[in-house]
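Weekly sync, protein design subgroup
Attendees: M.S., D.O., the rotation student, P.L. (late)

Item 1: inverse folding check
M.S. brought a backbone from last month's batch and wanted to see whether the design step gives back something sensible before we order anything. D.O. pointed out we never logged the input encoding, so this time it goes straight into the notes. Structure tokens as presented (130 positions):
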């Protein structure tokens, strides 16, 4: 099991993680997850930037445990795949509703293109996990 500081250090060493800096906070971003470390207090938190619309939310305690058990990279992949499954489920419902309600062909094509893009990203990350 990893501490949050070890998870932060793994994010720092990960080639795919992008460094973000702001006043008093050092952050790394990968696949929609951002890990922040306050420079003065050494306080670490992880934020899921793919959920919750306008405001970014800190991940749940269960998701923190996922990071502590699996480490940065594997946890990112597992949680990213979970988010993709949720998005795909929502898109399937929207496509079904659009077909039933006889929505415009343009909207249906747009939804299907979005589904294809999510599936492409899903498969790319899934192969990295295996």
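Designed sequence read out in the meeting:
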């Amino acid at each position: 099991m990893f501490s949050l500081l070890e998870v932060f250090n793994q994010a720092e060493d990960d080639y795919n993680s992008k460094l973000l800096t702001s006043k008093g906070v050092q952050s790394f971003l990968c696949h929609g997850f951002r890990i922040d470390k306050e420079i003065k207090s050494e306080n670490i938190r992880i934020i899921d930037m793919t959920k919750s619309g306008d405001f970014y939310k800190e991940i749940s305690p269960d998701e923190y445990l996922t990071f502590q058990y699996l480490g940065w990279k594997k946890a990112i992949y597992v949680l990213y795949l979970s988010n993709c499954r949720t998005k795909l489920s929502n898109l399937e419902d929207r496509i079904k509703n659009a077909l039933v309600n006889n929505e415009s062909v343009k909207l249906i094509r747009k939804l299907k293109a979005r589904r294809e893009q999510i599936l492409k990203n899903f498969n790319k990350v899934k192969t990295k996990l295996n």
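Discussion: The two ends are 21 Å apart (CA to CA). The chain has four helices and five strands.
Action: P.L. to compare against the previous round before Friday.
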